[in-house]
Amino acid sequence: MRMLTDGPRTFAQHNAERGFVPWQRFAGRAALIDEVVASGLRGRGGGGFPTGLKLRAVTGRRPVVVANGCEGEPDSRKDHVLLSRSPHLVLDGMLVACHAIGAAEAVLCVHAGSPLLAGLIRALADRGPDANRIRIVEVPRRYVASEESALVNFLGTGDARPTTTPPRPTERGVDGRPTLVDNVETLAHLAIVARVSAEAFRADETTLVTTATGVHEVPVTTRLADLVTGPVLAGGYGGVWLSAARTGELTVAEAPGVAVFRTPQGCGLRETAGILAYLAAESARQCGPCMFGLPAIAGDFAELAAGVPGRALERLRRRLPVVTGRGACAHPDGAVRMASSALDVFTADVTAHATGVGCTSTHRRTA
Questions:
Q1: pTM > 0.70
Q2: pLDDT digits (tens, 9 = 90+) for 152-171
Q3: Across-strand partners of 232?
Q4: What is the tens place of the pLDDT at every residue in 163-214?
Q5: At what angle do helices 184-196 and 87-101 cross, to 10 degrees?
Q6: In whole angstroms, what is the distance from residue 236 CA to residue 332 CA?
Q7: Which end of the chain is less congested by CB atoms within 10 angstroms, N or C?
Q8: End-to-end distance of the chain based on CA atoms, in angstroms?
Q9: The pLDDT of residue 361 is above 80
């Protein structure tokens, strides 16, 4: 069963095409979670954690389901397309998750002022009492605001900055209650698993990917090289650059992070420098690595990309390992991972820029 339709459906049309969720098959929480575990479904928000195990981890009183539709990655459009074209599948998934963990409350998070809001409000109204436990919350448009702990923090306190873990949201989340935070695509898949069985889901599992040509729903076994040509930035701004050879070895399911793939429009080092400047500006500014480490690394990378004579490369080699693992959240780690991978993948360009020879890159966007 595919996630995307050619346009939004009414609730009645949605059920006519897909069938109703067979709640009678899952009289108890354990039966549903066992089915999800057997399906092999993994999160689509970047972490790739097994969804069934995450559901099983939510125990305690008054649990909450949070659907993350903010899509903080600037290059990604998959969640926007999904919520635009198949909102009822996501809402079904939220209710399935509520059933699995025993939650009476669910929150759908989107960015403040999102063009999705009107359609989502209509979809909820169309469902009638079925959707009474779901509410929509607008989250600030910041890169880090859609991180799991930042969402939980915002819903509880109004502060959309990440917090340290542990405890995980599954242990202590919104207002101190156990909380399941899942990407909206994960929840859409959850609704499909509930309808078709674990075995049928595994046989026809798809995923949403974002490339320069748009959002595509493809089988998880699709070769990455069939969608883009390397080198490519996989997994968003906190992901990794993959060489052309590595791109040819992976399927979309094996690629790191969220399924968004960016091919450079010229010099990969200059593109990386621009991304690092963005990440430094978008930090939560609540720890040393974000306040001082990321701006310093972004500055060094900008010097290297510009071919400025000096010791920028030497400073990068020294600073990158120091930042890793020392932040209050994973934001600086992602930036360092992406920067380090650029130095590894664009080796010829690194040498050319560092020695003043000039950029040798011939990469162009071909996705």
A1: yes
A2: 999 999 999 999 888 999 99
A3: 242
A4: 988 899 999 999 999 999 999 999 999 999 999 999 999 999 999 999 999 9
A5: 80
A6: 14
A7: C
A8: 26
A9: no
Residue count (the chain): 367
Alpha-carbon distance 255 to 239, whole Å? 10
Per the CB < 8 A criterion, the answer to whether 70 and 109 are in contact is yes
Q: Report in angstroms the alpha-carbon separations of 282 from 124, 262, 295.
A: 32, 20, 11
| Residue 284 CB contacts under 8 Å (≥ 6 apart), including other chains | 144, 150, 161, 162, 290, 328, 329, 331
Taking alpha carbons only, the member of 138, 141, 98 closest to residue 118 is 138
Q: What does the H/E/C string look like for the chain? A: CCCCCCCCCCHHHHHHHHCCCCHHHCCCHHHHHHHHHHHCCECCCCCCCEHHHHHHHCCCCCCEEEEECCCCCCCCCHHHHHHHHCHHHHHHHHHHHHHHHCCCEEEEEEECCCCCHHHHHHHHHHHHHHHCCEEEEEECCCCHHHCHHHHHHHHHHCCCCCCCCCCCCCCCCHHHCCEEEEEHHHHHHHHHHHHHCHHHHHHCCEEEEEECCEEEEEECCCEHHHCCCCCEEEECCCCEEECHHHHCCCECCCCCCEEEEECCCCCHHHHHHHHHHHHHHCCCCCCHHHHHHHHHHHHHHHHHHHCCCCCHHHHHHHHHHHHCCCCCCCHHHHHHHHHHHHHHHCHHHHHHHHHCCCCCCCCCCCC
Q: What is the pLDDT of residue 363?
A: 45
The number of beta carbons lying within 10 Å of the beta carbon of residue 199 is 10
Token pair in block for residue 257? 């992070």
Half-sphere exposure in the Cβ direction for 198 (13 Å, CA):
15
Q: Which two tokens stand for residue 218?
A: 């493809």
Peptide bond into 63 cis (omega under 30): no
**CA separation for the pair 257, 247 (Å, rounded):** 14
> Whole-angstrom Cα distance, residue 111 to residue 340?
30
